[in-house]
Amino acid sequence: MTRTQLQAARDGTITSAMERIAHRENCDPEFVRDQVADGQAVIPANVHHDALDPMIIGREFSTKVNANIGNSETTSDLEEELEKLHTAVHHGADTVMDLGTGSDLDRIREANVAHSPVPIGTVPLYEAVKRAGSPEDLTTDVLLEVIEKQAEQGIDYMTIHAGILLEHLALTEDRKTGIVSRGGSIMAKWMEAHGEQNPLFQVYDEICEIFAEHDVTFSLGDSLRPGCIADACDDAQYAELDTLGELTRIGWDHGVQVMVEGPGHVPMDRIAENVERQQEVCDGAPFYVLGPLVTDIAPGYDHITSAIGAAMAAQEGAAMLCYVTPKEHLGLPEKQDVRDGLAAYRIAAHAGDVANGMPGARDWDDALSEARYAFDWTEQFELALDPERARSFHDQTLPGDNYKEARFCSMCGVEFCSMRIDQDAREASDDGELKELKRETDLESSSAAEVNRPPVGTHDTSAVSPVADLDGVDLEREYPKADD
Ligand code: SF4
C-alpha cells in the first residue's frame, strides 16, 4: 500500500524526496516535512515516475514555474513533443503539463514521463472526451478509467475540474467572455445537457482513492476563471473557489496532496485580493496561478501582460506560476514560444522571490551587477537568465574577442558609456586610483535555493537519457483506442 508524501509527513517520516528537496531549497528537511504535513506545500511525485528529481511547491519555498506543452489535432508528433519537453526543462521549467489533445496521446505521455526529471501534469478530462466522442457522452466510468490509467503511467499531478457545479452556471450569464477554461466549458456543457451535477464532483471520493494509491497530487482546476479583466473576481469565480476549498479538505482527508489553480485575467489592483482569498478559503493550500494577464489588449505579447501579474501574484504568495507564451489566444506554442514564455516567467518568479526576501535570492542579481560594472562581459553572459540570448545580442554589434573586456557596448558607445564615465570620475576623485571594483558575491556559498542561482535549468538530468534518444521507451506499446 502506497503511502503518499502527505501521509508520510503526517507520520513524522522524512522521505528521500524530502531530503533531496531540502538540499535543493537549502533548508532543513524537517521544515519540508512540516510544510507538507500541514498541506502548505506539495511534492508531486507519482510512485511510478522513476526519472523524477523531486521538487516542492509551496509559498515558503522558491516560486516555481510550469510550462505547458502538448499537441493538438493539427500539429506535432512524439519527437516534436519530446523536443518541447527538452526545451522547457532546459530553460528552467519546474514542472511540465502535457495538454495534448491530438493523436498518439498515450505514447507521448509515456515518453514524457520516462524522459522527464520534472513532474508531469495532465488534464485527464481531455483524453476522456476523446474517448467518449463528445462532452455530452462522457460518463463517470470513462473519467475514472482515464484517471486511473494516467496515474498508473506515472503522471505526478492532474487538473481535476470538480469545482464547477450546476448551480454556478447561471452566475456566468452576464460575463463578457463566458467560461474560458477548456475543462470548465466541457463540464458546463455536460451539466446543461444532462441537468445533473458535475460528474467529477460526483466521483471525487473515488478519484481521491486512485490518487492516494499512486500518490498523484490534485491541481484543482479553476473552471470559472475569468477570461477577461471585466469578468475578474465575479460571483462565479468566487463561488467555485468556495467549492475548491471544500474539495481541498476532502483530498487531505484521503491523504492526498492538493494545490489549487487560479486566474486568468485580473487587473493589477485586484491580484492581492485573489491570492489572499484563495489562501484563506483553501486553508493555505499552494496556489498555482495562470498569469494572470493584467490587461487584454496585447495578443502576441501575452507572455508580458501575464508575467506582470505573475510577478505580483508571486510577491503575494502564489507558489507556482503557469507560464503563458506569446501565442496565447492565437495558436499552439512552438519551441521559440516555449523559450520566450519561460524566460518571462522565470523573471516573474525570481522577482517575486527577491521581493519576498527569500534566502539568498538576490545574490544572483548582485553577482550579475558586479560583473556588469566590472565590464566582465563573459561572466555577465554566464550569469544571465538566458546566456545564449545575452551573448548573441551583444555579439550582433561587437562580436570580436577584444570586445569581451571593452569598457562600453554599442548601446551608448565609447564616448557616452555612463559606467565608464562614472568609474573614470571616481578614479579622478580618488587621487587617480579607483578602489578595486567590488566582486564580493559568491554564488557557490549562497544560501539561495537552486532555482535562484544560475544556470536556470537546475534539474539533475543525469538519470535521464537524452531527450532525442528514445531508447528505453516502449514506443510500440498498444493502448486501448477510444472505441475499445
Ligand atoms: S555603453 Fe551603456 S549600456 Fe553599454 S555598458 Fe556602457 S553604460 Fe552600459
Automatic annotation (TrEMBL):
[4Fe-4S] cluster binds at C409, C412, C417. Residues 427-442, 474-484 have a biased composition (Basic and acidic residues). Zn(2+) binds at H265, H329. The keyword Iron-sulfur applies. GO terms for molecular function: phosphomethylpyrimidine synthase activity. It is an enzyme of class 4 (lyase). Substrate binds at N68, M97, Y126, H161, S181, R182, G183, D222, S223, L224, R225, E261, Y288. It holds the Pfam family ThiC_Rad_SAM. InterPro entries: ThiC, ThiC/Bza_core_dom, ThiC/BzaA/B. Keywords: 4Fe-4S, Iron, Iron-sulfur, Lyase, Metal-binding, S-adenosyl-L-methionine, Thiamine biosynthesis, Zinc. The keyword Ubl conjugation does not apply. Residues 427-484 are annotated as: Disordered. Pathway: Cofactor biosynthesis; thiamine diphosphate biosynthesis. Its cofactor is [4Fe-4S] cluster. It catalyses: 5-amino-1-(5-phospho-beta-D-ribosyl)imidazole + S-adenosyl-L-methionine = 4-amino-2-methyl-5-(phosphooxymethyl)pyrimidine + CO + 5'-deoxyadenosine + formate + L-methionine + 3 H(+). Catalyzes the synthesis of the hydroxymethylpyrimidine phosphate (HMP-P) moiety of thiamine from aminoimidazole ribotide (AIR) in a radical S-adenosyl-L-methionine (SAM)-dependent reaction. Belongs to the ThiC family. HAMAP family: ThiC. This is Phosphomethylpyrimidine synthase. It comes from Natronoglomus mannanivorans. The gene is thiC.
